[in-house]
Write a structure and sequence with these properties.
By secondary structure, the chain is of the alpha/beta class. Helix content is about 55%, strand content about 25%. It folds into 2 domains: about 1-55; about 55-205, Rossmann fold. The protein is built from 5 helices and 5 strands, in the order αβαβαβββαα. Strands 2-1-3-4-5 form a 5-stranded mixed beta sheet. The longest helix is centred in the N-terminal third of the chain and has 55 residues, at about 1-55. It is elongated, with a radius of gyration of 30 Å.
Length: about 210
């Protein structure tokens, strides 16, 4: 009797395993057509993503805010960065070179990308965007010369995911002049010169 009980228990265990295995096979059989149908779509999405990245490769977009204290500083900073990046084989576009309609569209896309909308990066025709702002503050005159400090930062952002990949901080860069405007302009010019070669090389490398 004891042997018969053990045999019956084994039979029931085997039956349960058989039904589980059969259910698994049935599930796989039902999913197979769906998986096979999805494979080309996934492959197409991957190919399109690679194609989009290749289209952006080697391109950098400069978006430097214009401070209210000195007009034209964004163009000065953009020009300096563009010169160095172009020498490294990178194609550079500044916001000041864009048509107003395109500039407005890209500005909105950059804002969305920075807010976490990764898809917004698809409409930005560059692998890396450089955003930032440099401003000045007046200091007390020294030896009959006006003085000003320039402070700010530049950030390189990957358009694939909106992540900041490089940062350049510019702090306490002093300028002098015969007027407050001259001192502020001098400080901002020195800030442009202070942008490090390391930062420029990082942008160049990440854009490729």
């Amino acid at each position: 009797m004891r042997c018969k009980g053990k045999w019956a228990l084994r039979v029931r265990s085997f039956s349960r395993l058989y039904y589980k295995f059969s259910s698994l096979l049935l599930t796989l059989a039902l999913l197979a057509p769906i998986l096979l149908a999805a494979t080309p779509a996934i492959a197409l999405q991957t190919k399109n993503a690679e194609r989009g990245r290749n289209r952006k490769s080697g391109r950098v977009l400069l978006f430097i805010d214009e401070p209210t204290s000195v007009v034209g500083v964004s163009e000065v900073i953009s020009r300096r960065l563009a010169q160095h990046l172009s020498a490294m084989g990178v194609s550079v576009t500044s916001f000041s070179d864009l048509e107003p309609a395109n500039a407005g569209r890209l500005r909105r896309a950059i804002q969305k990308l920075q807010q976490g909308d990764k898809k917004a990066g698809d409409s930005i025709p560059a692998a890396i965007i450089v955003v930032g702002k440099v401003s000045t503050s007046n200091l007390d005159p020294f030896n009959d010369l006006y003085m000003a400090d320039a402070n700010g930062s530049l950030k390189a952002i990957d358009t694939r995911d909106g992540k900041t990949v490089a940062v350049e901080n510019l702090a306490d860069i002093r300028g002098f002049g015969n007027s407050r405007e001259q001192a502020a302009t001098d400080a901002l010019k020195k800030a442009c010169e202070a942008v490090s070669e390391k930062f420029v090389k990082q942008i160049s490398s990440l854009a490729r």
